Amino acid sequence: MIDQLLQDLRSNNVRIWAKEGRLHFDAPKDVMTPEMLALLRDRKEELLRRLEEGPGRRPAVWGETTGEEREPGGGVRLKRLTTAADGLVVFVLPPAGAGPSLFRPWAAEAPEGVEVVLVHAPGREDRIHERPYRSVAPLADAIAAAVDGYGDRPFVVFGHSAGALIGHQVLLRVRSGGARLLVTAASTPPDRVVGDVAAMSDGDLLAAMAAWGGTPDQLLDDPLSRGEFLPCLRADLQVVESCARPEDDVEPVDVPVLALAGAEDAFAPLSESLRWARWSTAGFRAHLVPGGHFFPAAEGAEILALVQRYAGGPVPGGA
């Protein structure tokens, strides 16, 4: 009975594992219905016993058979979502509180010749019990080292929201000469970062998450789920706050910037995205994409087409 439940969960792309006596899971938002959450709570003890029986008994985690993980120094892992023998590599940095599975739909949307590589930092998904980064400097150092060690290929750094701020710091650190583009999606630049968000109460932080969108209400309302994602989100927001810079302290990258804004995004609208223009010495362009703050998860095909289009050469100025 429990094996059949695990198989059903696996077939619905639910990633589930046990660690230190606790049950952990991750799944697409349309799968985590109230009924699914109730099922996990009701069968928690049985699932824990089954998953803790011994090594090799855990259901396959997404990426174990379809992706390749590398673990350079610094605790950052790279998960290859799509492969290409050569050509452009797109390193994807998720938003605050999120992990690489947010970009799982891109596997079917990447154009030929584009290799999509997801950055998997500690503190989320199946790395939930690992200590997350709380400052951008060591995180950017680790990601830059991983990018430098990936191979001599032209590459793009794509950052969603907080990921864009981190991506800016990564490109200030990489030694490889293959950088072609920084893509900032649903993000404001460092001089527009506001502080004290990480210090919000749990209630205020949950209210903010509801306003941002992208997280199903049933997850926000479920104590088991909240206990999983709030610590990671709070740590990531500390990383964001460490990226803040005064308006007169601009540190531009020497690659073009392509700023993407969601047409319905009230938190990082086009007017804010345009402010990234000062953060590049090599050209800037902004583009409006359908959707709200989490548009990158749903618009992979359009985004990757734009990336492929602009990564080949200088990005002209203007929107």
Automatic annotation (TrEMBL):
<dbReference type="InterPro" id="IPR029058">
    <property type="entry name" value="AB_hydrolase_fold"/>
</dbReference>
<feature type="domain" description="Thioesterase">
    <location>
        <begin position="90"/>
        <end position="304"/>
    </location>
</feature>
<feature type="domain" description="TubC N-terminal docking">
    <location>
        <begin position="2"/>
        <end position="53"/>
    </location>
</feature>
<dbReference type="InterPro" id="IPR001031">
    <property type="entry name" value="Thioesterase"/>
</dbReference>
<feature type="region of interest" description="Disordered">
    <location>
        <begin position="54"/>
        <end position="73"/>
    </location>
</feature>
<dbReference type="InterPro" id="IPR012223">
    <property type="entry name" value="TEII"/>
</dbReference>
<comment type="similarity">
    <text>Belongs to the thioesterase family.</text>
</comment>
<dbReference type="Pfam" id="PF00975">
    <property type="entry name" value="Thioesterase"/>
</dbReference>
<dbReference type="InterPro" id="IPR044894">
    <property type="entry name" value="TubC_N_sf"/>
</dbReference>
<dbReference type="Pfam" id="PF18563">
    <property type="entry name" value="TubC_N"/>
</dbReference>
<dbReference type="InterPro" id="IPR041464">
    <property type="entry name" value="TubC_N"/>
</dbReference>
<protein>
    <recommendedName>
        <fullName>Polyketide synthase thioesterase domain-containing protein</fullName>
    </recommendedName>
</protein>
